User: What shape does this take?
Amino acid sequence: MRVIDLHCDTILRLMEDKARLSLEENEFQVDIKKLKHGNSLAQFFALYVDLNEKKDPMETCLEMLDKFYVELSKNQETIALARNYEELWANDKTGKISAFLTIEEGGVLKGELYHLRNLYRLGVRLITLTWNYPNEIGYPNALEDCKNKGLTKFGEELVAEMNELGMIIDVSHLSDKGFYDVARLSSKPFVASHSNARSVMNHTRNLTDDMIRRLANRGGVMGINFEKLFLGNDPISRVSNMIRHIQHIKNVGGIETISIGTDFDGISPGWEIPHMGEMNKLVEGLESHGFLQDEIEKICYKNTLRVIKEVLK
Assistant: This one.
């Protein structure tokens, strides 16, 4: 089964020791060998920047971006940048995994659209509008007093510019009100790259049933997050809990709304699926719960493929 994963934090982990750590093989949850073993079609790599820890978030972002490209260059026989649907399939035809470049924290833009356009030129194709802090775009759902605050004026301008450029808008982490602003303003499908169902696990990082329906109506997808705290109350991240969320989202928004957003290398320890090389465990779990082959294909890659084709330029 082919797999497209909408979110991992592997580049952040590689930055811990840039000279030593490699994307080809490492001790983390995502590397090229594990991607191959997991039959990866494409991996979305996030450049995550903590606004509270970094004096200049754009500089940090560009440093991570450089590491991303250094690793692609070292491993150009097996993995290559993809910026759209056509490049993804061109890579696949030559036996290469596609790497999509994303940013997790719209605050790196510093409230300037020219930063967005420059990052687009550098290959970025998805931006998670906020992380867990307010920024120039909007507010996080992690803070109680921010849930009912929506997009700023700049945030509204950003949505329009991302639509025009052909970039995917990601609402994971965004405030509830911000979600509805994006749903109202975006002319293209958008995603919640690594979020689950709030009705199954009541966590601020998950989407309500009404949000799932809105996302589905706009042609978007939500990536099942493997973080145990977003899945249930078990001490580890269990496949059975992932399937509970998948079944619920299917019932609420339809099978076309479900995708994969593991959050690998950014989630807390304790997993039944320890790394990208063992994604077959999710496929086997879905099969044992009666999901049809076509449905599993949609979850694992076809739904995300559709969004890539419809949005990216």
